[in-house]
Amino acid sequence: MTPAILNHNLARQTLHTGPAEATRPGTWRRVIAWLGTFTGLSVTALGTVAALILAALHGVTWLDLGLLAGMYVVSGVGITLGFHRLFTHRSFQTYRPVRFLLGVTGSMAFQGTLFEWVGRHRLHHKHSDKEGDPHSPHPHGPTFRSVLRAFWHSHLGWAFPPNPPELVRYAGDLRRERMLRIVNALFPLWAVLGLLIPAVIGYAFAGWYGALTGFLWGGLVRVFLLHHVTAAVNSLCHLWGSRPYPVGDQSRNNPLIGVLALGEGWHNNHHAFPSSARHGLKWWQLDVSYYLLRVLTFFRLAWKVRLPSEPELKARAAGVGPMRP
Ligand SMILES: [Zn+2]
Ligand SMILES: [Zn+2]
User: Fold this and answer.
1) What confidence score (pLDDT) does residue 278 get?
2) Could you tell me the pLDDT band of residue 122, with boundaries at 50, 70 and 90?
3) Distance between CA 150 and CA 139 in Å, rounded?
């Protein structure tokens, strides 16, 4: 999972049978996609620098930190529980208004549209660390330069080219649902709302200066942090960490990203049990997204939560049994 900032034009080419056969996009599409991603990454980075300079000059308020934390969790859970566990892997079921809300809050993370995100992540699971994986950090050459290039590609570099045409096909089930087509089409609106909401709250409590710092901390800084934390699941969590389950790829459990990415850093667990709603499979593996799902189930707002059974856990640890879809 990672950002495709402002790069939300789904390809319209005829679909083929696999990534290797995808047609090469035209020059203009490549230029527009590159500029969109470059602009998104630059603006959030510059906004973070501006927020730090203002904080050094005038201090930072609890309101700003609260907006950063609040918006980080709201849009982060939209990605982890919504885009990832609900829409990509169908690991639980919930009511339409909850699906709508998770689709909207996930869009506020500026990581591309719902259909793009889901399509790309399903491709990642299908071809993990092999030809066709949209963002594997494993190089094709032995040199230090090729290692660095592969890391950059897995972290953010993959977001610069246009979307591969097959993404459309990989989110076909979601495209059949009218409500999700609306959520997907209005991605720019939700993304901008994610910047305006903290600015409006900042204005309500602290006037125009509060609007500015609310926009910076709850908007640009939050998107900047979430981009890199989400990107780290694709880069760091396929490089460093433990591998309790032999799953045939390089996915790892990384405790730091496990905490920062609201549970998504237990990535080897996730590759072993992709449809499990719980990624932190041990009691000590912090998984904030799953705890929130438990709250939803307590209030009967979610059901059919999919979890691996004890025999399945044992079998996968021993390298036995197919990976569940
Ligand atoms: Zn992965
Ligand atoms: Zn996944």
Assistant:
1) 98
2) very high
3) 5
- Which of 67-81, 154-168, 169-183, 212-226 shows the lowest per-residue confidence on average (mean pLDDT)? 154-168
Predicted confidence (pLDDT) at residue 190 exceeds the cutoff of 90: yes
As a whole number, mean pLDDT of residues 218-243 equals 96
Q: Say whether 303 sits in a helix, a strand or coil.
A: strand
Å from CA of 234 to ligand 1 middle:
6
Spatial separation of the C-alpha atoms in residues 320 and 325, rounded to whole Å: 15
DSSP bridge partners of 303: 93
Confidence (pLDDT) at 176:
95
Of 258, 103, 227, give the one whose Cα is nearest residue 171: 103
In eight-state DSSP terms, residue 241 is: S
pLDDT of residue 131: 86
Whether the CB-CB separation of 94 and 303 falls below 8 Å is answered with yes
pTM more than 0.70: yes
Return d(Cα 294, Cα 32) in angstroms, integer.
Answer: 42
User: What is the DSSP code (8-state) at residue 151?
Assistant: H
Q: How far is the CA of 118 from the centre of ligand 2 (A)?
A: 9
Give the number of whichever ligand sits closest to the CA of residue 247.
Answer: 1
Q: Quote the DSSP letter at residue 253.
A: B
How much distance in Å is there from the Cα of 273 to the middle of ligand 2?
A: 9
User: How far, in Å, CA of 79 to CA of 110, rounded?
Assistant: 10
Look at residue 120 and give its three-state secondary structure. helix
Q: How far is the CA of 36 from the centre of ligand 1 (A)?
A: 25
**DSSP class per residue in 261-278:** TTTTTBHHHHHHSTT-S-
**Cβ-proximal residues to 63 (8 Å cutoff; 6+ apart), any chain:** 201, 202, 205, 206, 210, 213, 214
